[in-house]
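TA notes. Do not distribute before section.
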Amino acid sequence: MQRHVAILGAGPIGLDAALACADAGWPFTVYEAADTVAAHLRAWGHVRLFTPWDLNVSHRMRARLPDTPTGDGCPTGAELATRLLDPVAALPALEGRIRYRTRVAAIARTGLLKHEQIGTGTRATAPFTLLLDTPDGEAIAEADLVLDCTGTYSHPNTLGPGGIPAPGERALADRITRTLPNTEESDRWAGTVLLVGAGKSAQTAARDLAGLPGTRVEWVVRKPAPDWGAVPDDTLPGRQHLVDTSRALADGANDRVAVHTGAYIQALSPESDRIRVALATEGGPHEISCDHVVALTGYTGDASLYRQLQVHECYATGAPMNVSAALLGSAGGDCLTQPAVGIDALRNPEPHFFILGAKSYGRLNTFLLRTGYQQIDQFVAAYADAPRLLSTGT
């Protein structure tokens, strides 16, 4: 049986990896848990990116879709999905290669446990076994090389101190919004919204919710003196605008927005059709009764997929160790200045297994699509002379 390259996830990086495999003549299959490509992008489709079209389209996509928009205009998530990624998925080179509604539940080396054959050729040549959840039930697939491009957006962080769930959070999980709210549905957010987080997603939500006349925002920020991720002489106007707006809200520019800095969630409890939230603040305990809770405290990838593989994770970021070391050692936190870490940093102790895209950055929030496309370039270059491996597993 001819084995394939397994690509997990049909987002921008997974689709670019598929094009790279098609260009190289390597057999491949893309496994996508949703019923469409770019499911994560569509989940925040109403939000406009900071980065322009030219930073969000790979050279492989551009070569096959020359009419894709160019220039400094910044697309929304929905525009990126419908004007770029849907046409990519419809290309003849990808026909029949994407298996929708098929989630990879776990990955292992066929016949080997995690601790066996460490660093040996035996382990390197054993195929991967993928456990699949499909519309028809569980199934098994094999591959010689696996690219995990599953992203992070479906695995949000929790609200409690130190990153664990706050008491009551799990019981109220179905009443907590963990994605960017769409404020075009203004009635949906009437009343008091408790917003938690200080990153760009939370800043976007604060800006948009503050514009709704029927909404009051109680914004909880962990740091006592947040810098809002300001970048000196920022060249991305949309990002700078968010910083300016957040500073203004923290300074009291909108009387329907209260910003609680140096605060964190202690507990949540139901209060009839509302939620009571206990806060720890610099001034002492504080309670808020709210109609909605929006938790935007970041996202991390699902590491359980490769629990049985030999993956060396950074103890601080959760990213692959070599990637994390390269990024943490670079100067500055601007996504536009992050280095291309190189193929050696992308490799794992598990041969032929790569974590690419936003998931490769772990808890670091400086990933750009451009970086993911560079990762695909590095992967292709490293395997350019290995067609026999990819087609026969030897």
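Switch to the second chain here.
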Amino acid sequence: MQIAHFSEVLTDYTHNSIHLVTPFDSGGSSAELRRAFAMPAVGDLRARLLALADDSVTGHPEVAALFAHRLAAREDATAKSALEQSLQALVSAKHPLLKAIAEPMRSLIQSYIAAFYKHMPTNFNLAGASVGNLILTGGYLIHDRSLDPIAFLFGQLIKTRGIVRTTTDANLQLEVLLESGRTIIGQHCFTGKETAQIDSPIRAIKLSGEADDIDTLDASKVCKETRKLIDSAELLVFPPGSFYSSVIANLLPKGVDKALAKNPSPKVYVPSLGTDLETLGMTLVNQVQVLNAHLSGTLEPLSSKRSSIDFLLFDSQLLSVSADQVETLRNEMGIQIIDLDLAPENADTQRYDDVKLAEALLGLT
């Protein structure tokens, strides 16, 4: 994933970046945790924390090593016994990765693993489980089902060179409506990574609670601390990523759009390269229209209104954009087009060069 590696590169330039990630993943190992504990996904949170971790001697690389560790992926009877033994070793602080951590951090982390184990269903599948996810889950349960305290704590433990938060810690799913009229609930069901690709463009996206639980949806309101983080930003970046499940999804919790509108700092959109299955049937102009619609709090793409996005940053050698689209973006929507050399040295046309991208973005602050 480019954004995780880009975040790591960004730490060479600043330790003051703010990263808001989505907790809506519904596939892979996140799905197992979400089913067992009725909780938001923590995989993206863990990955971004690790990407920003200080792996030098001044940091705590031994904590990051435990956080990044995964249990064996096999699921047969022999492996199940070994998985349970590995978990027991973590709970009892006898696991080598946990023993390598100095006190009092060791006991603190052990308490979160123990909290996970205490509440773990007997039929929970440990195969391939991320230990970092298990620790975050234990912290989530200990801290009254809130992610912010545990995200802050582990940011301190692994000395993240930046701030990482989720936009909400409500247990919600992404729901999309296709142009064909079909409704799909669950992020993994429309990204094309774990299921068949969608065969119709996405018309709309929203957050969905269990049976559209209104109380749960109201709980998605962005917290005061996150609003303050948004207020403090000197540049607001919508980075490369899956358009709906990564970029737009972060704008869905209540209040995010208003917090972004309140901040007068420049807003820049960096469109993804390669094939994004979620943008089926969409042009770059369409993407900006949808992004504007969510930034303004409306439900339908805006076709004529001037854009809330100030800058569009890309490399025309990597992303082909027609002259008509450029004219619409620049003249009708009022966006400043920044077309720079962002190509990597290895001529990979599916991604931007992280160093060039970081320097281009910091040049806008």
